[in-house]
Amino acid sequence: MLHDPNHLYIFDTTLRDGEQVPGCQLSTKEKIDIALDLEKLGVDIIEAGFPVSSPGDFQSVVELSRALKEPIICALTRANKKDIDVAAESLKEAKRSRIHTGIGSSDMHIKHKFNSTREEILERAIEAVKYAKKYVEDVEFYAEDAGRADKAYLAQMIEGVIKAGATVVNIPDTNGYCLPDQYGEIIQYLKENVSNIDQAIISAHCHNDLGLATANSISGIQRGVRQIECTINGIGERAGNTSLEEVVMIMKVHNEFLGNIETTIDTKFFTQISQKVSRLMNMPVQPNKAIVGKNAFAHSSGIHQDGFLKHRENYEIIRPEDVGVEEAGIILTARSGRAALNHHLLRLGYQIDKEKLKSIYSAFLTLADEKKEIKDEDLHQLVKN
Ligand code: KIV
Ligand code: ZN
User: Fold this and answer.
1) Do residue 68 and residue 198 come from a single domain?
2) Is 346 in the same domain as 372?
3) Atom of ligand 1 nearest to the CA of 100
4) How far is the CA of 205 from the centre of ligand 1 (A)?
5) Which DSSP letter does residue 234 get?
6) Are residues 254 and 320 in the same domain?
7) In terms of domains, do 265 and 321 share one?
8) With 0-12 CB in 10 A as exposed, 13-18 as middle and 19+ as buried, what is 256?
9) Cα of 236 to ligand 2 centre, how many Å?
């Protein structure tokens, strides 16, 4: 498969890795609702489910395959024939389909999950890819727990599966174990030691157990990764997956430094889709979450508010409207200064002279010490008094 080295493929797994979180299960109708938004957002690949896991998941993959036109629809399997048969069946109506198969690659998984040997696992990996190729051209292979695998063995596995026809090789940091440099070094090692590596796209699938999923994904991109597996709001197993919105905004903000690599994501839909995923999955977004948290564009300290009101770029590296937020918030609290207070009074139509502002400000501070946040009705009251 030929690919543009300046394009970063966005592989969304909100509906698979995200949906397997307890309490986040979705009906097929809800999955279609989110998937249509993901299509509008411009993701390249949607991992629609793990079809062998349940009849409901199978049916969701069937219906998502019917409903979506643009993105590649991907189904997850383990490295066995039954899983692959079922996945292929579920993808029959997809305009473009991919089977995502794989197996553990670390000695930990080989011994304590499969009770097997490196040789046997390598053989199963290659056989699974060959088998999936009977159904679809586009086969992605995941080397589970690659973050803790022996690099030489991992390279041997990746070389073998590419030879068997894998178009994409996924190097998951399944346990969120790696540091960014360590993850980057794995990618670099594969680039230097897998003879056929240029015949496949390298994919990063990072978990967030140490809060490093996004950093590790970016480190991977710097060493040659060209597909990122991620979810809306970073939802996913345990501490979650790489957050889609974070990776995409990092690629935008640091585009030149990161080598002018582009995505096809329309970032102005971020807020809308984040809220929908949060609502349907019953999973609140923490207020300080980068890009989509309620406070991501809210300025509350006096020093920041004053600097922001003088020149917004003093405290703003992303324009809120670029991610679908109508405007930045100047929140009025006991830490706010006179500039912020005046900004809101002007917004409400009050032209206040310096002396009056001084006295309103001191009443404002007394009230703000009592209340967490000062609202418009409080401001009207303060002006009246
Ligand atoms: O975290 C992981 O390793 C996975 C694989 C199934 C791709 O989710
Ligand atoms: Zn995962």
Assistant:
1) yes
2) yes
3) 7
4) 7
5) G
6) no
7) no
8) exposed
9) 7
For residue 144, report the distance from its CA to the centre of ligand 1, in Å.
6
The CA distance from 124 to 282, in Å, is 38
pLDDT digits (tens, 9 = 90+) for 325-345: 988 789 999 999 999 999 999
Helix (H) or strand (E) holding 378: helix 376-384
Residue 206 lies in domain: 9-280
* Closest ligand 1 atom to Cα of 142: 7
Q: Which of 11, 17, 238 to mutate to test the pocket of ligand 1 (most atoms within 8 A of CB)?
A: 17
Q: How far is the CA of 101 from the centre of ligand 2 (A)?
A: 13
pLDDT tens by residue, 51-81: 999 999 999 999 999 999 999 999 999 999 9
pLDDT tens digit string along 338-378? 999 999 999 999 999 999 999 999 999 999 999 988 999 99
Buried b (16+ CB within 10 A) or exposed e, 140-164: bbbbbbbbbbeeebbbbbbbbbbeb
Question: Do 233 and 376 have their domain in common?
Answer: no
Q: Which-ligand-closest: CA of 141?
A: 1
User: Three-class SS of residue 296?
Assistant: coil
Split into its structural domains, the chain has a count of: 2
Q: Could you tell me the pTM of the whole model?
A: 0.96
Q: Does one domain contain both 275 and 356?
A: no
Measured from the Cα of 207, ligand 1's closest atom is: 1
Residues 68 and 214 in one domain: yes
Residues 270 and 332 in one domain: no
- Please indicate, yes or no, if residue 292 is contained in any of the structural domains: no
Q: Token pair of 243, please?
A: 């957050």
CA of 145, closest atom in ligand 1: 3
Tell how far the Cα of 318 is from the centroid of ligand 2, in angstroms. Answer: 29
